[in-house]
Amino acid sequence: MRAIELSGASWRKSSYSNSDGGNCLEVADGVTPLVPVRDSKDPGRGVLVFGPRAWGHFVRAYRSTST
Question: Per the record, which residues fall in region Disordered (predicted)?
Answer without folding.
Answer: 1-22
